[in-house]
Design a protein that fits this description.
74% of the residues lie in helices and 1% in strands. By secondary structure, the protein is mainly alpha-helical. It has a two-stranded antiparallel sheet with strand order 1-2. Helix 11 crosses helix 16. The relative contact order is 0.15.
């Protein structure tokens, strides 16, 4: 007799497929009408499907009930998503973009990253009780890189096409791609010092000298420099091989389109085996692969890479919604929920905007205060922060005394999970809010507040849908008075662009 098989695979497949179908039916309206990105809705879906709600996605079951296995799954999932998407980001920048715009990037990656790291660390140190400044430096390093996935909200879709200059789009996305891989030195200067100097270096002798030696030798020379060289070699070699095969008609169209994605998978695996920085290598490889602009121009009308990008976004943010330690925000005992909310607000306001304002005079792509504020707003905290959080937890597991995790390392592991996860959630929500807010300001110089712009537009569209359907049933056209209320100058909201324009290949 047939029975209902509610195994994990069937449940996850049905839930994820159903979500994509439902979201897809409304995707144009939600993305280009209400400026809701590809993060918030999958995140909320993941929360709804998590063990605390519908119990469809059961992360601990997949990890065999072990927290360490769950952290490992999140780490490798984040690696996969970041590397594939950063290759795609590199490929879709203009040919030799890094070569011709290195000065602007240097200001954002040098003083910009240092400023974001120190300002965030100081805020964490001030707001989290009983936390040392060295520990706050480790937490601040996790959220220093800007996330390329969330940054896509400003370089993709109707908002970007209509409001943001191309030069500004490109400098934002190239910064987010480069600084993702450059987060390692900021994180590991703190972690090495904690390991070799914390609690008097108990169980880990060597002191400051050994910590600095590892930071220069292992982190800079092996992880950073080697990853740049490796990414450059892989990208150039892949480009030469693909063009050689194409000239001899050895490669079909489908294999040609997927070549960049395959590079990302290859780099994840090979860099993981040799222990170097796969995130930075992926971004460099994507830029090197497109050094002659040939691949970019020949795939400009193809949607395969953007579709893969979208599916990865849906999957990773739904996973985050399911695995986020929501209960620890209110009942963790490390920091009160009031302090957490205050920290989130302060980080969103002070982490990036002041330092971007300070250096924007040296960056030719940022013209005027308005573009400075846009660049400051859209440096979100996302997948890269969870990646560095997972790297930190893996490192702290090995800071031991006689086989037991040292007390200061265990305390930091608890603190860093609560703070980083909360800041990621704040950034995802605020990123959606800021996009609607900025859209309102840029379109009509009116000031919206938070999610009021997307929700206001949702109300207008919902009423319009009901009236139009009522008119169809009665066989009469839509009333003129409602048609007039849809005009941009009356509503104060930009008119929804035609699908043919907003969905054009970027």
């Amino acid at each position: 007799m047939p029975t209902l098989s509610l195994v994990n695979f069937n449940l996850v497949s049905a839930a994820f497929g159903g979500f994509i179908v439902i979201f897809g039916l409304l995707s144009h309206l939600l993305k280009d009408g209400f400026y809701l990105g590809e993060a918030l809705i999958p995140l909320l879906t993941g929360v709804w499907l998590s063990p605390a709600a519908a119990n469809v996605i059961r992360p601990l079951d997949y990890a065999h009930g072990e927290g360490e296995n769950l952290h490992a799954i999140t780490l490798h999932f984040s690696r996969l998503v970041l590397c594939v998407q950063l290759v795609i980001v590199g490929v879709h920048l203009p040919s030799q973009y890094l070569r011709y715009n290195w000065k602007s990037l240097a200001w954002l990656l040098g003083p910009g990253m240092i400023g974001m790291w120190l300002s965030t660390s100081l805020l964490v140190w001030a707001m989290v009780p009983h936390l040392s400044f060295l520990h706050s430096l480790a937490i601040g390093a996790c959220v220093t890189p800007t996330d390329p996935i969330l940054s896509n909200a400003i370089v993709k879709g109707a908002f970007a096409d209509q409001r943001i200059p191309k030069d500004l789009q490109r400098i934002i996305i190239s910064e987010s791609g480069a600084n993702d891989g450059l987060g390692y030195p900021f994180l590991f200067i703190a972690l090495y010092l904690i390991k070799y100097t914390g609690m008097g270096g108990e169980g880990q002798p060597g002191g400051v000298r050994l910590a600095i030696a590892y930071w220069f030798g292992e982190m800079w020379m092996y992880v950073i420099v080697l990853s740049v060289i490796y990414g450059l070699v892989v990208g150039l070699l892949a480009s030469k091989l693909l063009h050689w095969a194409e000239d001899r008609k050895l490669v079909d169209r489908e294999s040609y389109q997927i070549f960049a994605i395959a590079q990302g998978l290859f780099i994840v695996g090979t860099c993981g085996m040799i222990g170097t920085d796969e995130v930075l290598a992926s971004f460099i490889a994507g830029n090197a692969f497109n050094f002659d602009n040939r691949f970019r121009t020949q795939t400009i009308d193809d949607s395969l890479q953007h579709t893969t990008d979208m599916l990865l976004n849906y999957a990773i943010f739904a996973w985050f919604g399911a695995v986020c330690p929501w209960s620890s925000f209110a009942h963790g005992g490390i920091i009160s929920i009031g302090r957490l909310i205050g920290l989130g607000v302060l980080v969103l306001l002070l982490r990036r905007i002041p330092i971007v304002y300070a250096v924007h005079f040296q960056i030719r792509q940022i013209q005027g205060l308005q573009q400075c504020l846009i660049t400051g707003f859209f440096g979100p905290i996302g997948v890269s922060a969870i990646f560095y959080l997972s790297v930190s937890l893996e490192f702290l597991r090995h800071v031991t005394v006689e086989g037991v995790v040292r007390d200061d390392a265990a305390m930091l592991a608890e603190d860093i999970q609560v703070v980083v996860w909360f800041l990621v959630m704040c950034s995802i929500v605020s990123n959606t809010s800021e996009l609607g807010h900025l859209s309102s300001c840029l379109c009509n110089k009116q000031v919206g507040h938070g999610l009021s712009v997307p929700l206001g537009k949702l109300g207008l569209k919902f009423v319009g849908l009901i009236r139009s359907q009522r008119g169809k049933v009665k066989g009469s056209p839509e009333p003129e008075e409602f048609q007039e209320s849809q005009e941009p100058q009356e509503s104060g909201i930009a008119e929804l662009a035609p699908i043919s324009q907003t969905n054009r290949t970027r």
